């Protein structure tokens, strides 16, 4: 059966990445009408406007992390992401503003207390394929590369780098469908997943290149000592000792595709903007006149011509 390219892209935005990036890079001089900092909101708004103006997406969803300490992964591995400090109240407020801004612009907002943004993106991509859409995952997160199929792509927006499933191996040393197994073996320090002791990134890539999958590797551990791989005998012993841990780690590194998306529109088609809500946010967040104009334009709301001295 031939696989023709899907007709339209579904943009899936890993919002938290860009909110955190703005939080760390934007000056803290931006304050809302109540005196709270809104630097992350201003930075996120600029990113979002750039994306909307550049791509003019018809199908789009923006995923936020509400499961930073309540995700199902914490129940099966309490140390999951335990190395991360909780977000300060000043930032939590800004996440709420960013979600409101997306909703006011008519974008589907995905958030859940049990599932992380990666899971929401994975589920949305799985659902979008049922509508004949191909995925464009807007994120630099390597975990998300496991979701890529033939016509999908991932987009590191800040570096303006795009790659498809075929490009994952050049970036990470393994194929897209092997990413979860790869991270289970070598670990992921960002998420506090240690991996199998003694197996690093290069060793994990070699093992998966030879065996194809974690399951096949664990079934054929007796073959590992004979590989042309430094420390192969020790790796075999560690894999025997830590077999159950490796399988547990793969549960953590595998992105779910069955998260609840009850509030999403069919096909994640962009909806109508809420002019009143958008205007209220512009006032509350004290956006400058140029940012206001861009937001209204992105929302399809007519505006008058800008004056010469308007600025963001």
Write the layout of secondary structure elements.
Blueprint: E1 8-14, H1 15-25, H2 39-55, E2 59-63, H3 72-76, H4 89-104, E3 108-110, H5 117-129, E4 133-138, E5 153-156, E6 161-164, H6 168-172, H7 179-186, H8 201-211, H9 214-219, H10 232-241, H11 243-253, H12 275-284, H13 289-298
Parallel strand pairs: 1-2, 1-4, 2-3, 4-5
Antiparallel strand pairs: 5-6
Helix pairs in contact: 1-2, 2-4, 2-13, 4-12, 7-8, 7-11
Describe this structure as you would to a colleague:
With 312 residues, the protein is an alpha/beta fold. It has 2 domains: 8-168 and 256-268, Rossmann fold (3-Layer(aba) Sandwich), CATH 3.40.50.1010; 176-253, DNA polymerase, domain 1 (Orthogonal Bundle). It is 43% helix and 9% strand. It has 13 helices and 6 strands. The protein has helices at residues 15-25, 39-55, 72-76, 89-104, 117-129, 168-172, 179-186, 201-211, 214-219, 232-241, 243-253, 275-284, 289-298, and strands at 8-14, 59-63, 108-110, 133-138, 153-156, 161-164. Strands 3-2-1-4-5-6 form a 6-stranded mixed β-sheet, with helices on both faces. Strand 5 and strand 6 form a beta hairpin. Helix 2 (39-55) runs parallel beside helix 4 (89-104), helix 4 runs antiparallel to helix 12 (275-284) and helix 7 (179-186) packs across helix 8 (201-211). The longest helix has 17 residues, at 39-55. It starts with 7 loop residues before the first strand and ends in a 14-residue tail after the last helix.
């Amino acid at each position: 059966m031939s696989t023709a390219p899907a007709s339209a892209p579904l943009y899936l935005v890993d919002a938290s990445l860009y909110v955190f990036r703005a939080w760390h890079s934007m000056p803290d001089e931006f304050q809302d009408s109540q005196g709270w900092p809104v630097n992350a909101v201003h930075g996120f708004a600029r990113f979002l406007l750039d994306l909307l103006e550049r791509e003019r997406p018809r199908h789009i969803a923006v995923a936020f992390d509400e499961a930073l300490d309540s995700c199902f992964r914490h129940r099966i591995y309490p140390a999951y992401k335990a190395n991360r400090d909780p977000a300060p109240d000043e930032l939590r407020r800004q996440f709420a503003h960013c979600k409101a801004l997306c909703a006011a612009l008519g974008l589907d907002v995905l958030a859940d207390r049990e599932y992380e943004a990666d899971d929401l993106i994975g589920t949305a991509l799985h659902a979008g394929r049922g509508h004949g859409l191909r995925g464009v995952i807007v994120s630099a997160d390597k975990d998300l590369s496991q979701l890529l199929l033939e016509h999908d792509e991932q987009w590191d927006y800040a570096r303006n780098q795009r790659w498809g499933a075929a490009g994952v191996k050049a970036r990470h040393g393994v194929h897209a469908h092997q990413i979860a197994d790869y991270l289970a073996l070598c670990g992921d320090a960002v998420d506090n997943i240690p991996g199998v002791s003694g197996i690093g990134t290069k060793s994990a890539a070699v093992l998966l290149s030879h065996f194809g999958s974690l399951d096949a590797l664990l079934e054929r551990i007796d073959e590992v000592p004979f590989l042309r791989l430094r420390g192969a005998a020790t790796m075999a012993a560690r894999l025997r000792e830590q077999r159950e841990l490796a399988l547990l780690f793969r549960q953590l590194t595998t992105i779910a595709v069955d998260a609840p998306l009850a509030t999403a529109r069919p096909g994640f088609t962009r909806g109508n903007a809420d002019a009143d809500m958008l205007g209220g946010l512009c006032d509350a967040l004290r956006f400058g006149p140029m940012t206001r104009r861009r937001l209204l334009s992105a929302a399809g709301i007519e505006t008058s011509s800008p004056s010469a001295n308007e600025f963001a």
